[in-house]
Amino acid sequence: MHLFYVPFGFPLIVEHGKPCTGSEANFCMNGGTCFKILSVSTPTCVCSASYEGSRCEQFQLFSFLPNSEEKGMITAVVIIALLILVVLGVVIYYICNNSLSQEQDY
Question: What whole-number distance in Å separates Cα of residue 55 and Cα of residue 57?
Fold first, then answer.
């Protein structure tokens, strides 16, 4: 399954597409891959990273769309970091509280 960026700005997921040939082979810009889809009259581009548009002509400086595996990894790292901070906070609290109790005993 491939994600194609069609001319009107809507992504279209299709299973079949033939690589462009002849003069259409250079239709896509910036390293995009050209495909012909029977239901679309113009060539369709699969853009390389950081580019979008019907011909991959628009550079996206801050385009970051993590896939589901990356989203899961990011979520796991954030949760683990938060848990470490909570545990560290509890340990510091008990150390401080314990040392205050020992000082008051003297």
Answer: 5
CA-based nearest residue to 56, from 2, 5, 1, 3: 5
Q: 43-65 pLDDT, tens per residue?
A: 888 888 888 888 999 988 765 55
What SS3 state is found at 32?
Answer: coil
Instruction: Report residue 35: phi and psi, to 5°.
Output: -135, 150
As a whole number of angstroms, the distance between CA 95 and CA 106 comes to 17
* pTM across the whole model: 0.45
**Residue 40 CA from chain centroid, whole number:** 27
2-59 classified as CATH 2.60.40: no
